[in-house]
Design a protein that fits this description.
Blueprint (H helix, E strand, L loop, with lengths): L4 E12 L3 E12 L5 E13 L8 H23 L5 E8 L5 E16 L2 H15 L1 E3 L2 E4 L2 E13 L2 E2 L7 E14 L1 H15 L4 E4 H12 L5 E6 L5 E7 L2 E8 L3 H12 L3 H12 L5 H31 L6 E5 L2 H12 L2 H4 L9 E3 L1 H7 L11 H12 L5
Parallel strand pairs: 1-4, 4-11, 12-15, 15-16
Antiparallel strand pairs: 1-2, 2-3, 5-10, 6-7, 7-8, 8-9, 8-10, 12-13, 13-14
Helix pairs in contact: 1-3, 4-11, 5-6, 5-7, 6-8
């Protein structure tokens, strides 16, 4: 395979959430003269937990995040000495670094007019100009900077429509989901990346990258619930016919589940993670395994209660899908999936039952590649990589 490769490009991807930082250094190897076939090769990957934020102030949390990012950047830089020069560096950011807000743009004319895609770009640009002022290379909304924007709904003359192209409209509402970052956070991230790699990073919004990856990987799934449980927060996105119709979150994620395990087992967080790994491999002694399973069920129940409340609301509105995707820390992900599928409470909600399915992002991503690629186990990093590939960013 290596002999057929005519070119390769090297990329660096960081995934930064409220409890950890993951890094993936990889090569995209193009095959043959046309370069239409390719495969991915993982050069280096690692994820480190951030110190427990506890009751500390945000400035302390910012500094500890900067320290961890510096450490991982140094590790990644050491590996870049054996690769081709970096083409780009990406930072995929979750809460609390990113704030996601909905917005509705209203446009109305005295007479009906024909809609076209150029019109959409025009009104989005006008909206940004009216509510922002240029500051060098970014737009600032008060004290927040816009890094991502997605149209999540279109309403013509009061009715929701998927495709507006060529339609006559008089009254138009465009619903957008916008991702913002604070100048202080952006400055810190840019300083670290520019110091180590002598280039500015491209900032991505984790909520938007997850949504776009799912939309493009599973175009036939009309009703889908996305659960991102990878950090301190669970982010939920309801997708219908390729568009976001509902977003929600609650402050319990993978990290909280592990903390509960550690507290109840009276061990360190690292030891609790080790127990999870051994439990998944069925390597715990039988008497200890039974005790651990009881504590594990209780830990998941704390998380599940918050999820169930949201799902109950969807069920009451007849919006509850039978398909969902799950992104979580690798040692927690399979247990969350099994727990949800085996839950009698979920089976009792309208829309859930025997047809409940869990989408496999990893399988879908690697199956679309003609050439075998390295399996990337970190689902958060893989979702971001999938977005970059599907949107033809890395080429």
């Amino acid at each position: 395979m290596a002999n057929d490769t005519n070119t390769k490009k090297t990329y660096l991807l960081f995934d930064i959430d409220s409890s950890s930082i993951g890094v993936l250094l990889f090569e995209k190897n193009f095959l043959g003269a046309k370069g239409t076939d390719f495969f991915y090769q993982q050069i280096f990957s690692e994820r480190r937990y951030l110190p427990n934020r506890g009751e500390g102030d945000f400035e302390s949390f910012l500094r500890s995040t900067e320290d961890t990012l510096n450490q991982l950047a140094l590790r990644a830089f050491a590996h870049t000495k054996k690769t081709a020069p970096l083409d780009s560096v990406y930072l995929n950011l979750s809460a609390p670094w990113i704030s996601n807000q909905k917005n509705i743009l209203h446009f109305e004319k005295e007479r009906e007019f024909f809609y076209h895609d150029g019109f959409m770009k025009e009104i989005l640009s006008q909206q940004q100009e009216k509510k922002s002022h240029l500051l060098r290379d970014f737009r600032s909304y008060d004290d927040l900077e816009l890094i991502g924007q997605e149209v999540i709904g279109r309403y013509a003359n009061g009715y929701r429509v998927k495709n507006l192209e060529g339609r006559k409209v008089k009254d138009l509402d465009i619903h957008t989901l916008n991702s913002f970052i604070s100048p202080a956070s952006k400055r810190m991230f840019f300083d670290v990346i520019e110091r180590h790699f002598h280039r500015s990073p491209v900032l991505l919004s984790n909520l938007l990258t997850n949504y776009r990856a799912l939309r493009d990987l599973f175009p036939k799934e009309e009703h889908l619930l996305s659960l991102d449980v990878s950090a301190e927060i669970t982010e939920i996105v309801l997708i219908e016919k390729g568009e976001i119709v509902r977003i929600a979150s609650f402050p319990i994620g993978s990290r909280a589940i592990k903390r509960y395990l550690a507290r109840e087992m009276k061990v360190s967080l690292e030891k609790a993670s080790s127990f999870l790994d051994l439990f998944g491999q069925k390597k715990l002694e039988e008497h200890f395994e039974q005790h651990f399973k009881k504590v594990l069920d209780q830990a998941f129940l704390v998380w599940f209660k918050s999820l169930y409340n949201f799902l109950s609301e969807l069920s009451a509105e007849h919006l509850l899908p039978q398909v969902f995707s799950l992104v979580a820390e690798p040692d927690v992900e399979k247990f969350l999936q099994e727990w949800i599928l085996d839950s009698d409470e979920l089976a009792g909600l309208a829309g859930f039952g025997k047809q409940l399915r869990v989408l496999d992002i990893r399988l879908a991503f690697f199956d679309q590649l003609k050439e075998r690629s390295d399996e990337i186990q970190d689902s958060s990093l893989l979702a971001a990589l999938s977005f970059l590939e599907q949107e033809n960013v890395i080429k």
